[in-house]
Amino acid sequence: MLKIENLKASIEGKSILNGINLEIKAGEVHAIMGPNGAGKSTLSSVLAGRADYTVTEGKANFMGKDLLELSPEDRAREGLFLAFQYPVEIPGVSSTNFLKTAINEKRKYLGLDPMEATDFLKFMKLKMEEMEMDKSLTSRSLNEGFSGGEKKRNEVFQMAMLEPKLCIMDETDSGLDIDALRLVSAGVNKLRTPERSFLVITHYQRLLDYIVPDFVHVLYKGRIVKSGDASLAKELEVKGYDWIKQEVEAAV
Amino acid sequence: MNLLEQIKSDFSNYAAQAEPGVFFDKRLEAFAELEKFGLPTLKNEEWKYTNLRKIAEGNFTNTCNSNLDAKTLIEAGILNRIECNKLVFVNGCLFPELSDFLDEEPGVILSNIAQARKNHTSIFDAHFGKYIKLEGEGLNAMNTAMMSDGAFVFIPKGKKLRYPLMITNIVDANSHPVLQQPRNLIIIEASASATIIENYIAVGSNSSFTNVVNEIFVDENASLEHYKVQRAKGETYHNNYTQIFQNGNTNINQVTLTLDGQWVRNNLHFYMNGQNCNSLLYGLYITDGNQFVDNHSRVDHAKPNGFSDEKYKGILKDQSTAVFNGKIMVHLDAQKTNAYQRNMNIILSNDATVNTKPQLEIFADDVKCTHGATIGQLDEEPMFYLRSRGISENEARKMLLNAYADDIAEKIKIPELVQILEEEIERKL
């Protein structure tokens, strides 16, 4: 589904990603862990198409297309979804209108007719029940006045509505208390299917207790320096990141 | 003939056959002020960014002449979706066929000025020219000296105007450049209330200058909703001075919407002459091409416990220019004043210009006042967020600008007018 080869990226001349190689197949859940400043959020930003970053080298192929050539909106329409670490509050844009526009723009891109208003509302109602979303959230302006937990749940709800192929979750656990973390993870687990893949970016292992990954990668200084299964996350929880840093420094 | 010469000539013709009386005396006084001060120039601080040169050059014709029929006028943009009382003026003169009143409450007077002077002389003379400042205000003096017709509204004590009154001024510049000077006098007595919509439109390819003066008196415990919609397309020059004189415990909601017009200057002056006045001033301007729009406002908090909230928002495209100058004056007596003022601008091109000057002058010592101005582009973070959900850049920009403008649209309490505004925003963006 996604194949990243030797991806290098910089911001304002400062190199952040120094050659990422990663392959995610349909239905797999990959976790990217790493200390602060390793390049975790940069990786998600580059994949989603944030303009602040310059890709200096490498390739990313998504569903047979050159991902890096696509505009952010076309990446989304092809089935990529980024759950933001800090979802933006947009006063005056209603959540409902926003979702309807997003769905219909994607349908247009795929050559489908727009969804009728009543069909859309039915679909939204269904998804809200499935995701146990409070009705009041969709009647308000997008993320406006939402608590940290509500914002993250709303990201997962959008995911359910837009039905992406690959979900990138950028530090979704940051700023969540344990109850909110459980709710958000339960939402994500409902969306797991044999076709849909996830790239879960996190600093802490605790999120991975709820969203259990197939693969865990450690990012350090802009490179994946270690890969393993879910047990690697547990090991990091116990031992911290220092031993990995030492291993890397020793190898140099 | 330049504008001043023309006004002088028109005035001497008028004076030769005018009946003596209060009305004539006020106009004579105004004419003397105009002769003394002339028209404002760029040297005047309040006109620093606003050039009257093209207007002063003149060659406008001051005449009612128009061949337009009712159907054409309606299509030109009379807002007939709104159920309301209507006064329609073409080139400054009443167009009776389209003027229509729904309110028939005894005591309520809706009329044009020309009729009101004859039929309600004592009320007219008691208020006309009482509130508007002439000294140093050449355009106000010019309007007072040589005014066209306009609306006369009198809501007696405790009465409510059930339907809004829409005052539509239409320029018909099909055959020649037009000068019109609408003059509206609105009197709302104690505990009474009214809603007024000013609607400006234009047809024809010649230029025009519309110089409006509104005098509005709101007595104790009364309330006013006042909307101004500027949609006069083409080579139109428009100056509007609205003077609101409010007594204690009054509530006023004023919204100024500037969409079209080559050159527009809005002057809005609130004078709070009593305690517990509540005044809201909101504005939205969306400019493109080489439009020039200037919003000048002044709120005088003269008595204690007043509240004012002012918010003007602009969206500028192409080579257009906007000016904002807001002054909040808190007088020595006006303790416990709360006053807020903001001017926000989004610039969508490299060639647009904004000059903004929010001002506070405070002479009382126990007040809460804030002011501020912003000029910037559309924020990148919300743009990226919307795009990352599959929404195109264009559509995302539209959604964000609509949201920005809706903040002002929601201050309008007539749903049909909000809808019309939303269509206009869509058109302009």
Q: Care to describe what's here?
A:
The complex is a heterodimer of chains A (252) and B (429). Chain A is of the alpha/beta class and 252 residues long. Chain A contains ten helices and twelve strands. Helix content of chain A is 40%, strand content 28%. The longest helix of chain A has 15 residues. Chain A starts with a strand and ends with a helix. The model of chain A has no long low-confidence stretch (mean pLDDT 93). With 429 residues, chain B is α/β, with parallel strands linked by helices. In chain B, 52% of the residues are buried. At the A-B interface, α2, β7 and α3 of A face α8 and α9 of B.
What is the strand tally of chain A? 12
Range of helix content of chain A: 40-55%
Identify the quaternary structure here: heterodimer
Helix content of chain B: 10-25%
Side by side, the strands of the main sheet of chain B go 2-1-5-8-10-12-14-16-18-20
**Ranges of chain B with pLDDT <50 over ≥5 residues?**
none
- End-to-end Cα distance of chain B, whole Å, is 39 Å
Helix and strand content put the structural class of chain B at: alpha/beta
- Largest β sheet strand count, sense and barrel closure of chain B: 10 strands, mixed
Write down the Rg of chain B: 21 Å
Q: Which geometry of chain A do the CA atoms define? A: globular
Order of adjacent strands in the largest pleated sheet of chain A:
6-9-10-3-11-12
Major β-sheet profile of chain A: 6 strands, mixed
Shape of chain B from CA axes?
A: globular
Helices of chain B, by number, come to: 10
Task: Let me know the average pLDDT of chain A.
Answer: 93
Report the span from N to C terminus of chain A: 33 Å
| Gyration radius of chain A, rounded | 18 Å
**Strand element count of chain B:** 20
- Strand share of the residues of chain B? 35-45%
List unreliable stretches of 5+ residues of chain A: none
